Write the structure tokens for this entry.
Amino acid sequence: MQLKMVHTFNLNRYLPAAVALLLIFAVACNDNVPYKGDFYQEAQQKGYANLSVVYIPADGFAYTDDEGNLTGVAIDILKEFADFVQASQGIELRFNFIPDESFSNFYSDVKNSSGGVFGLGNVTITEDRKKEIRFSPPYLTNVAVLITNDSIEQINELSDISEHFEGMKALAFQGTLHQDRLERLRDHYLPGAEMEFATSNAQIIDMVSSRDDLFAYVDIYNYWRAAERGKNLRQHPAADLASERFGIIMPLDNDWGPMLSDFFDQGMGFRTSRTYRSILERHLGPELTEKLEAARASMTDS
């Protein structure tokens, strides 16, 4: 009896590569996305990747130093990631850095981009945002602090807000989680209080330090830097919120996520390394670094 050889086709074996190639083709045919970058699948074939990095300029995190070089915590972490990819995969990462002052524009542009596009804007990781963008593992644990002009008496507990902040207005960076926090605070303790809006953290700092009728939430590093410059501000520790984690954001079709996870997971974890600690201290200073690392320890999210 003659046996007939039957060859089966294993679709699952080729499906990931096929999907990646379809995504690459779709992006190539779509000129309407804000930014594009090479997929990891492409980079494996070429040995290099051209990546778009959209960032919000921020002291300590993404800023230009005295020599004209772009640097900061977020920038240096991304450069460490590039070194990791070069060493582990033999792929050279070439970054095109694009500044954007508007958080809402920055977020929308990254969300609507495609491929190797990354966003550095100290974006808080939330479940709702995960439905429309990808996040890297957290690269920083933040403390949100409530501030006023230093002429306002410090509150000892949240219920003091009703008395100490009477007649004041909330000042929010529109579109951020700080706006949500202020709305909850206002609705609970100061119902009917007005809310004003700012377009940047720097504007919030300037307005609160020059007026005694405003209260606002800012990230601790914004307050810390402003206090170092002698701004007339008061922090109200009773309202501190050490429950946020920042992540690098990416469009949903970005396929670099697993590599970013490998980078943060290397060794005992990148955020437990001396390299990470030195990056924080170099750009934020030892004292603020200690506060942020204490917040991380309290959340055990290394």
Summary: Confidence is low (pLDDT under 50) at residues 1-15.
